[in-house]
Amino acid sequence: KYIEYTVLPFFVVFYFAYLNEYGFTLQSFILVWLALASFWFLLLLVSKKRVDIIQNIPRLLLVSLILVLVVLLIISSQFPINFLYALTLFGKIFILLCITKIIFKEVASIIEEYSKYKEYTYIDELTGVYNRRKFDETFKELLNSDTINKFSLVLFDVDSFKQINDKYGHLSGDIVLRDISYLVEKHLRENGENGQLFRFGGDEFFIIFRNRSGNEVKKIMVGIVKKISCTEFQCNSFKIKASISAGIVEATPGALGKHIISQGDKNLYEAKARGKNQVYL
After folding, report:
1. 59-93, pLDDT tens digit by residue?
2. Which CATH architecture group holds 132-280?
3. Nearest to 192 by CA among 180, 215, 177, 209
4. What per-residue confidence (pLDDT) applies to 27?
């Protein structure tokens, strides 16, 4: 990131090596430091505008010229300039930069494809939220984290979801899942609740809240549960009422992941046993 400053000590080392080889003269001092200053300016330019430079042929020509100038200044401090050598050097540098441009373009394309692949790997196709694979990785990271000292886990599902599928059809059930996911994410985002939503499978979802106690999360989830129960979901010609039940568990230091999930699952079933459409901590 700060290569233009990182190289400065190496310039000093280079000049002392030069003095050791050729000795000091005022002319050589001026020419060598002019060359190093030109090289420093080039590094500064490249570090600030590297993407623009690598994609623009005229700018690649400019970079090649500056590099050739640097070399010629150093050579001319002790030897006569050979213009054929300078022209050959310019050609080689320019060809090398053009090859770099091609490689840069290919690497950028690979990175873009990888990013898309990674996104598809971690995103649930139906709801657009994170999937179980992403949950497993995130949950494992939190359990092994030295910086997150507490977090809370929410398990929720749609009450009587099988009846929705049976009565209105699976397509309507999919729309309900998608819209509930949207409402939950929207609530978390707009209220800055620091919650991360995952679809575990079917109508089951997880939410991870970093640095949140169970009581704090309960207040958040009560608001979400109420919002969903007050919403009518438009599914083709049907208007469907749905609700969710949620179980919350606050992760304690040293707790095993399977025990945390198991306790959250028990709390979810307790919420169901108490009449559904509610939260249990």
Report:
1. 888 888 899 999 999 999 999 888 888 889 889 98
2. 2-Layer Sandwich (3.30)
3. 209
4. 93
